[in-house]
């Protein structure tokens, strides 16, 4: 049975925060700035809470909760990419939460706890921790016991730094922490990170055994699941995940899938146009190796109880720049999920504003390309929602500029540009910034 559309609540960790529920659109109480984001989208005045959707004191009984630990693309290391996701029906049981990326993990959890008001507010308000006296102890409890798996989109430092440094906190726990990702990401972590040089080998591959790797099959494992959940991997209780490869630009190293090693690109084979992926063959050819591109991931995350779904992207470049169809494959799947009533929200990067030319995007999106990708998604949607009116799009991975003031929210210029492009394209999806310390309910 399709989930009921669409009520979204958000809760911050800031003082005086409370959960609010809006009709189809999210409402935010920003912890870093409330002045900029109160501006409505072009032609919209839907930032206010509807009177028919009053404040709520208890979180929903089912659906998904997303806690933003960090959604920055740098340069500050304490707020880089990391999201916590759980099925609300699990009621905070052990290993009921998955982390998507770990640029800021323990530090992000601690930030949320320290900015929450004493007396039971904030994203972790309903997690029983009264017997733990300190926020450091509470953060460690969440990391060790509540987070069951950590999914990594790609092995760049702003997505794995927390995983690396935090792993030592798993000593004396009852079982290793599962790290789930594409095989190329696993091999990069083994070869370059947990290698005894950059960091001790804390893996279960001839190491200390504090983490264990779980390979995610690109496009989903067809042997898992049934009906509309075929291909999904249940990494945490009642939380299903399917992974798709996307491209994050070219790299000086290429992944050899046969030897499962990364190798430096040959100096005698300079890149030429004919070495780019053939768009028509993108679905059949491997993403790495032949075309020397950095693999990243898009995770479809579904609540097994309510069937509600979100997508969280790692770093991603537009198909128009990669000359492939990697994103198109994701949008086809997303369109089917949206048409069925499952897809609630997309968390996707938009690192730069439109002043940056394509050659300096370095495998990222800017507003003009993000909206072009959303138009591709809209083109695949059936059953009457070609304007994406039932979808919420959260902007992530914003690069903090030098001229952002202490009281400003980074990315407001990007937000305005994306909203303007959406208005021009007659797309009605809600566009928001994914804000550090905020909890979203779907």
From TrEMBL:
SUPFAM superfamilies associated with the record: Metallo-hydrolase/oxidoreductase
Segments of this protein annotated with the region Disordered: 1-61
Domain of life: Eukaryota
Pfam families reported in the protein's UniProt record: PDEase_II
GO terms (BP aspect): cAMP catabolic process; negative regulation of glucose mediated signaling pathway
Record keyword Hydrolase present: yes
GO molecular function: 3',5'-cyclic-AMP phosphodiesterase activity; 3',5'-cyclic-GMP phosphodiesterase activity
Keywords: cAMP, Hydrolase
InterPro entries found in the cross-reference section: Pdiesterase2 (IPR000396), RibonucZ/Hydroxyglut_hydro (IPR036866)
Keyword Hydrolase among record annotations: yes
Name listed for the protein in its UniProt record: cAMP-specific phosphodiesterase
Organism whose genome encodes this protein: Aspergillus terreus
